[in-house]
Amino acid sequence: MTSNKNFDVTIVGGGMITAMQILPSLYHIQRLGKIGKITICGRSVSPLIKLRNDQNLKKAFPESSFTCYPDIEREPADKKFPGLYKDVISKMEPRNIVVIALPDQTHYEAVVQALNNDQHVICVKPLTLKYMQTREIEKLAYEKGLFVGVEYHKRFDDRVGIARMKYRDGDLGEFRMGYATLIEPWYYRDSNFPQWCTAENSDMFTYIGCHYIDQVHLITGLLPVRISVYGTLEKYPNGNEGYLWTNARVIWENGASLSILNGMGYPNAAPGGNSQGLWMFTQGEQDGGLLCHDDQYRGLKHSYIAKGVEPGASYYNEPSPDYFKLVDRGGEGLTPIGYGYRSIEALVEAVHRVEDNVQGLSNPESLAHRQVAIKAIDSEALLATPANSSFNELVIEAGRLSLLNEGREVEIKYGETAGVMFKKY
Ligand SMILES: NC(=O)c1ccc[n+]([C@@H]2O[C@H](COP(=O)([O-])OP(=O)(O)OC[C@H]3O[C@@H](n4cnc5c(N)ncnc54)[C@H](O)[C@@H]3O)[C@@H](O)[C@H]2O)c1
Q: How far is the CA of 111 from the centre of ligand 1 (A)?
């Protein structure tokens, strides 16, 4: 469903996820005529200069560009503009789109800023680090008839969609026990991560553990009720400390258990982008069931005659065609494929759906119309929204509390008195 409106988009944060997934996806959506101008606001000019000069983006989207704040022609590389995005958002026409691609601990403030300036919001995961903040965002957005979507792109991996249907049709039986892993590459230690993914702000469970919890929920509909997280505190090369390895045990409302290993240590010399996958053991009346997703190895084996120059490059490679790639589909430039693209497209489509058929309506009528669309998206529960995915923030709160207390078990309560607390024995 595409409304006639050509939404302008402001991306806040010009780091890794913007470069590798968000910007190329939006360029393509712009090419399809579903969004208008793209602006990117950074904290300094350096990441924006890198984005402007990115050869892969130039090759794929020779016709595309974005407006930069701060001004890359005038501002020095070392000058910081942490509050500039607020001015940029405040100058946008109402009911366009702000994409938040900032460090985890700054999402809440930026999302509220965008909503208070009447903008629809697409935010990278996690939406916030606190359940109450997510509920506040849900209320504010609904009152204003604005869409907020959380970018959990693994939801758009087709194997998850297939598993969801099989599980919900009863073909897999009931989830009993499983394990998941997502270990990011070692070279992340030399990226921008050590600036913010530090012990006081985040940890590997908070940063990426949520993906498989979100996925198990999407497949089964179950909610997590108890968590214990063990982590090891290590030094980044810049001397900052982070929980670079975590091991979590998540108990679900039906008594099932999922163990999740997260880390920043997938070998640079290894052939994939990271190490990841999900194994779920299930059961029926007569036999056990099994779901096994090797999300790291998607069946491709390449051996190159020269080693690339980018971090983590190796001669032998197992590339994934499923997350995000740019391929030649004819016409000018390249076309993005994969669940990374589909996720951004679905979130932009959701804004169109909320804004569909409201032109010409009075303000109260338009608001009522948009609120109906928001409730429908919430209840379909395919896109993560504050209303249907705030369990993720409870998990993060519980996980942090456990991690900072040597892995003590923390319980999650839902409903009117939702919150987290140490398990009593
Ligand atoms: N699998 C996933 O869903 C996935 C993958 C990667 C990142 N992410 C999320 O995306 C977010 C960003 O991650 P990243 O990998 O791009 O990190 P990054 O460190 O590469 O980029 C963050 C960018 O935000 C900028 N920034 C910080 N404060 C700012 C401010 N006040 N105004 C404007 N810009 C500011 C930084 O300068 C940096 O360029 C994180 O929340 C992360 O959890 C999600």
A: 14
- Predicted local confidence at residue 335, as pLDDT: 98
129-184 pLDDT, tens per residue? 999 999 999 999 999 999 999 999 999 999 999 999 999 999 999 999 999 999 99
Which of 102, 207, 211 most suits a substitution to test ligand 1, by most atoms within 8 Å of the C-beta? 102
**What is the whole-number distance in angstroms between the Cα of residue 128 and the centre of ligand 1?**
13
Q: Is the peptide bond before 321 cis (omega within 30 degrees of 0)?
A: no
Mean pLDDT in residue range 273-282: 96
pLDDT higher than 80, residue 2: no
Torsion sign across C-alpha atoms 394, 398, 403, 404: positive
Structure tokens that stand for 262 in this block? 């997260």
Per-residue b or e along 276-314, where b marks 16 or more CB atoms closer than 10 Å to that residue's CB: bebbbbbbeeeeebebebebbeeeeeeeeeeeeeeebeb
Residue 36 pLDDT > 80, yes or no? yes
Q: Retrieve residue 143's tokens.
A: 């009152």
Ligand 1 surroundings by CB, under 6 angstroms: 12-18, 41-43, 47, 82, 85, 101-104, 106, 124-125, 153, 192, 207
- Amino acid at the residue 179: Y
| Distance between Cα 164 and ligand 1 center (Å) | 29
Q: What is the pLDDT of residues 224-268, one digit of tens each?
A: 999 999 999 999 999 999 999 999 999 999 999 999 999 999 999
Distance 57 CA to ligand 1 centre (A): 19
Beta bridge pairs of residue 326:
336
Instruction: Note the pLDDT of residue 361.
Output: 96
- Is-contact 201 104, C-beta < 8 A? yes
Question: What is the CB neighbour count within 10 angstroms for residue 53?
Answer: 9
Sign of CA dihedral 81, 84, 86, 89: negative
pLDDT confidence band for 45 (50 / 70 / 90): very high
For residue 1, the model assigns a pLDDT of 57
Domains defined along the chain, listed by start: 7-154+330-388 (3.40.50.720), 158-322 (3.30.360.10)
Q: Which atom of ligand 1 is nearest to the CA of 41?
A: 33
Q: What is the rounded average pLDDT of the residues 326-333?
A: 95
Angstrom CA distances, 209 to 145, 152, 239, 248, 264, stand at 31, 12, 24, 8, 12
